[in-house]
Specification:
Shape: flat
Main location: membrane
Keywords: Cell membrane, Membrane, Transmembrane, Transmembrane helix, Transport
InterPro entries: ABC_transporter_permease, MetI-like, MetI-like_sf
Strand order of the largest sheet: 1-2
Number of strands: 2
Radius of gyration: 29 Å
Oligomer: single chain
Helix content: over 70%
Family: Belongs to the binding-protein-dependent transport system permease family.
CATH topology of one domain: MetI-like fold
Structural class: mainly alpha
Order of helices and strands: HEEHHHHHHHHHHH
Membrane topology: Multi-pass membrane protein
Distance between the termini: 81 Å
Largest sheet: 2 strands, antiparallel
CATH architecture of one domain: Orthogonal Bundle
Number of helices: 12
CATH class of one domain: Mainly Alpha
Length: about 300
């Protein structure tokens, strides 16, 4: 009689297995929603950055099929270029003056709009006028100010002069800095106005009872309450202003005689005017490093604030 061998039945699924599957699905579900965005960021940000960093250590890239590894030669070439040094100095002047002016003007207008001495109608009118520059794009701002500052423009007509504001080597850098100040202060004004409206009135009342005058209340009550906002706005504006390109390119193009050349326009000209993509990549990497330093301090401040 042939013996029949019966295979053992598979072990029954324990209650823990479905529970583990559900737990895995719940933990993986957010990554599924984020996957398209992460893939897009990887394609449009990570890969280009890696390629540019690689190009900065090579020569004969993009247009040549035989790129050569040159190490840090490109960095030496760029860092010793007189135009790069001029662009760096112009960028520092343009950025620092713009950020300081944005802060001072924005805070002044914010305190004006927050003052109880102005009625509701006047406050609404002033708010609309002050925020107007923020509504324009860089292209509109550049065209508008080129028309106003033309030799036969409104500004020269009012001043009864014929100054070449954007073509004069002595005035061009100050002029584009003024235009950037005019275009950027509303961001500070709106943010600081929101901060001023959040300052408890009891603090000012207590300071008044203690005998503090208006300046003392401003310096010892208002500024400490606004300090986190001021630091955040300043760091963000430093990053944005140091990378300003559209306004400079559409007003002066970096001229005349490189007096308004910025790091952004310098990098653009290396790539698309001289077709030296390796040097342009090197300049872009240097700008990236500077921006990452500012971004590090911004993130550090935000963490400390939280």
């Amino acid at each position: 009689m042939q013996e029949v061998i019966v295979a053992p039945a598979p072990p029954a699924a324990t209650p823990q297995q479905p529970r583990k599957r559900r737990s895995f699905r719940r933990s993986a579900e957010p990554f599924g929603f984020l996957a398209p965005t992460l893939a897009l960021m990887f394609v449009l940000m990570i890969i280009p950055v890696v390629l540019v960093v690689g190009y900065s250590f090579m020569d004969n890239v993009i247009l040549n099929k035989n790129p050569q590894l040159v190490g840090i030669d490109n960095f030496v070439t760029v860092l010793t270029d007189s135009v790069f040094l001029t662009a760096t100095g112009n960028t520092l002047f343009f950025t620092i003056v713009s950020v300081v002016a944005h802060l001072v003007i924005g805070l002044g207008f914010a305190m004006l709009l927050n003052s109880p001495l102005i009625g509701n109608v006047a406050r609404a009118i002033f708010r609309a006028l002050y925020i107007l520059p923020w509504l324009f794009t860089a292209a509109v701002i550049a065209v508008l100010w080129r028309m106003l500052l033309a030799p036969n423009g409104v500004v020269n007509f009012l001043l009864n002069t014929d100054v070449e504001w954007l073509a004069s080597p002595a005035l061009a850098l100050g002029t584009v800095t003024f235009i950037n100040i005019w275009a950027g202060y509303p961001f500070f004004m709106v943010s600081l106005l929101a901060g001023l409206q959040g300052v408890p009135a009891q603090l000012h009342e207590a300071a008044t009872v203690d005998g503090a005058n208006g300046w003392q209340r401003f310096w010892n009550v208002t500024i400490p309450q606004l300090r986190p906002i001021i630091i955040s706005l300043t760091l963000l504006d430093l990053i944005w202003t140091s990378q300003q390109f559209a306004l400079i390119w559409m007003t002066t193009g970096g001229g005349p005689v490189n007096v308004t050349e910025m790091l952004s326009t310098y990098t653009y000209k290396l790539a698309f005017s001289r077709y030296e993509f390796a040097l342009a990549s090197t300049s872009a990497v240097l700008v990236l490093v500077m921006s990452m330093v500012l971004a590090f301090f911004y993130v550090r401040h935000q963490r400390a604030r939280d």
